[in-house]
Amino acid sequence: MSTEMEESESAAHVLLLPFPAQGHITPMLSLAQLLCHAGIHVTFLSTEHNHRLLTQRRALSARFPTLHFESIPDALPPDQAPTIHSLHDISSSLRSVTKPLLRDLLITLAKKDDESYRSTTIRCPPLSCVIIDGIMCFAIDVAEEVGIPVLALRTVSACSFWCYSCIPDLIQQGQLPFQDQDMDHPIRDIPGMEALLRRRDLPSFCRMPIDHPSFKFFMEQIEAITRVSAIIFNTFDDLDPLILPQIATRFHKIYTLGPLHALLKSRVGDDLSSSVSSLRHEDRRCMAWLDSQQSGSVIFVSFGSLAKLSRVQLLEFWHGLINSGKPFLWVVRSDMLSSGQEERATPVELEDGTKERGYIAEWVPQEEVLAHKAVGGFWTHSGWNSTIEGIWAGVPMLCWPQLVDQQVNSRWVGEGWKIGLDMKDTCDRSTVEKMVRALMEEGDQREQIFKSVDNFAKLARHAVSEDGSSYKNLEKLIEDLNEKIV
Ligand code: UDP
To answer: What family does this chain come from, according to its entry (predicted)?
Structure first.
């Protein structure tokens, strides 16, 4: 009995704090499961609305006895989806409402002898570490104050993160704000990225005035993250061999664990689907529709959980898709139209004209869709989860980036890794038609792209296998957390 008690006292207990958006919750929840699978206690702290959605399904709690879901208020409307313009408001609300409550919670969880807490929850050891989302930096102050080590999971790509880190240098060199409107002007001063970047490929907030609240929000995050003990990335070493060493020049401890969703499957097994982290209801009928399509014929179109389109853009995309002649599965969220235009998310012509060759869904099981043999191309907004899921599935991509890191990712997809085409900043129907055809039709261009993405898919498989870098880095992270040396 006493040995059991001692073991429990010495085990690691980590609090995970995701940013309240789908693209941040999914990788954080994968990390939570990986840590719990290794016997670590995890408190997964979500804002109230997301907590309700995540805990409605009991599969995870039943499977991982050391996974504890907790909630914290954020004072935001329940259905507020973050946008680049609302980031500042969300951040202010988290700071004013959530921050003091987080301090109280950390103090309680860190106490070795707090019977009141431990008698009301499953017995778990005192809190030994906090892993925050890389843009929840207010939590660094709190963890420092309470005296608990803090790590960050950065849910963006390594190339975007490195770009962010170098933005203060670009400002100092006078490259930001842009002096004129030439968006093709090369950016040559980010080490490791000299040959690739143009102004239009920099994170989207670089297009804002530098005194804009959203620009300031990102600058604060860039500054604050230098204070964490280590950073975890959802990438693998063979994907970013030039960028990771650059990051290591400024951040002494990094763990690359990607693709996290694949590492989870490799370590824990295949029987829990990605649906456990989904905040929306999935339309699974699309899988039957895919079954009825020819192998490699369908272009899957999904712009993630946050992107907004104007009605004009939506119709240009639709005409382009129809004119390309390719079957398509398109995720059109009911909240996808820009504000003031949401009286009807899918215009009538879109629904009518789709019947023959397309399937429109509100939300789909994306990982499963990408793995389906009918899917031959992925038109994406280049969110990092979508991109790494596309790489894992070996599916060539067409990129239409909109927000923040997506601008950098799409450049890497198009010109860095050469696993797709970048359609950045254009969306007229003839460009869409041309690019969908180029992506989907036999020819040298598709063959090159396919070869390249297939190669990265194989490297990703190696990364999450027992000899692979992500697998070994996870072992190291678990060891460091257990020995409390992070
Ligand atoms: N996703 C999904 N079903 C959909 C659309 C998206 O499950 O119909 C998932 C997708 O697999 C990814 C996440 O939502 O894991 C979106 O994250 P990403 O970083 O790509 O974009 P964001 O939503 O943050 O812009």
So the answer is: Belongs to the UDP-glycosyltransferase family.
Complex ipTM value: 0.99
What is the CA(16)–ligand 1 centre distance, in A?
20
Distance of CA 100 from the midpoint of ligand 1 (Å): 31
Is pLDDT above 80 for 307?
Answer: yes
Domain ranges in the chain with CATH number 3.40.50.2000: 13-159+211-275+464-483, 284-462
Residues that are catalytic: 24, 133
pLDDT per position as a tens digit, 5-48 = 444 557 899 999 999 889 999 999 999 999 999 999 999 999 88
Out of 265, 370, 382, 385, give the residue to mutate to test ligand 1, the one with the largest number of ligand atoms within 8 Å of its CB: 385
Fold designation for 284-462:
Rossmann fold (3.40.50)
Judging by beta carbons within 10 Å of its beta carbon (0-12, 13-18, 19+), is residue 88 exposed, middle or buried? middle
Closest residue (by CA) to atom 7 of ligand 1?
Answer: 366
pLDDT at 6: 45
Is 389 near ligand 1, meaning CB less than 6 Å away? yes
Domain 13-159+211-275+464-483, CATH number (from 3.40.50.2000, 3.40.190.10, 3.40.50.150, 3.40.50.1820): 3.40.50.2000
